[in-house]
Description:
33% of the residues lie in helices and 26% in strands. By secondary structure, the chain is an alpha/beta fold. Strands 6-7-8-3-9-10 form a 6-stranded mixed sheet, sandwiched between helices. Strands 2-1-4-5 form a 4-stranded antiparallel sheet, with helices on one face.
Amino acid sequence: MLEIKGLNQFYGESHTLWDLDFSIAKGECTCLMGRNGVGKTTLLGCVMGLIKPSSGSIMFEGHDLTVASAEKRAGLGIGYVPQGRQIFPMLTVEENLQIGLPIRKERRAKIPAFIYELFPVLYDMKSRRGGDLSGGQQQQLAIGRALVIDPKLLILDEPTEGIQPNIVQEIGDIIRQLNKETGLTVLLVEQKLPFVRRTSDRFIIMDRGRAVSNGELGQLTEDLVHEYLTV
């Protein structure tokens, strides 16, 4: 579904991504892992069109994303939950969710009922401003906003960061439900190993801008964890 080949990116003279090669298969949940500063968020920025790669290709279902404008990603079926959530604090919960409606194919699109079924708190608080929600509620809103467009690929950047444990548990359950019951493909950036082991099928480890290991989750050995993930 998503195929990255020979991807390089520079910030000035700093070489941040080095010849990245990997693919994300349809229907799988893949976790992108690595210590802070290894290039994970930069890579997602390239996929989403927020950062321009210096060379290489990013293909999504036959579309070359390196030549597509950033706003076309949602229309192609990529939902994105950025690090830090980035909801609109002055808009209501309902208004935040409505932002994705023009992407949907229905002429008179409305917020899908399953969004409120997944996140009942969003229905209860749909008239409240996004900025008045707790961190966990804002993360649920950010995920719901990405799901409104009916994505084929859902990308989540550190979805458990700064979230209370009960909401982390709920988000993990929802990722598994979406992936296993509906077949939604998921690319997850996460550092909490218990969460990764619970939600993901495969892993990719980055170090210093390079993809240094990947495979099925059962191949994530303690040696790899110690070498590339332990702070």
